[in-house]
Structures are given as C-alpha cells and as structure tokens.
Amino acid sequence: MKISELKVAIPFLVKRNITTLLVGHHGLGKSQTLREISESLGFDRFVDLRLGSSSDAGDMTGLQDY
What we know:
Elements: H1 3-15, H2 30-40, H3 57-61
Helix pairs in contact: 1-2
C-alpha cells in the first residue's frame, strides 16, 4: 500500500475503531505517516510503541503475583 493510500485508509479505520498493524522495512515512513495522520485527526498525542525491542514477555504483560 502506498503512503497516499494510508492517509485515506487509516482515518477511515480509526473512526470505526478498527485496530491496524503496519508492517514493513525500516525507513519507509510508517511512523511519520501515522504521526501526521494523528495530528490531522486532532489527537492530543502520538505514542510510538515498538514491540520488537521488548526482550521479555514480562515487559509487555507485567509480572504475575503469586
């Protein structure tokens, strides 16, 4: 999908509460495009969460109390 197509598709999906995952090589502009879209939709903040850098499942889910 092209960046220009993302700029149309993502707002459509966000307005319908559909979770979206972007996958692609680094340097394509995925994060920057989402940052621009979030600003254009009037969101107060943009959080760039990179799951690939989590080294342990506890980083994502927390630790269980026993």
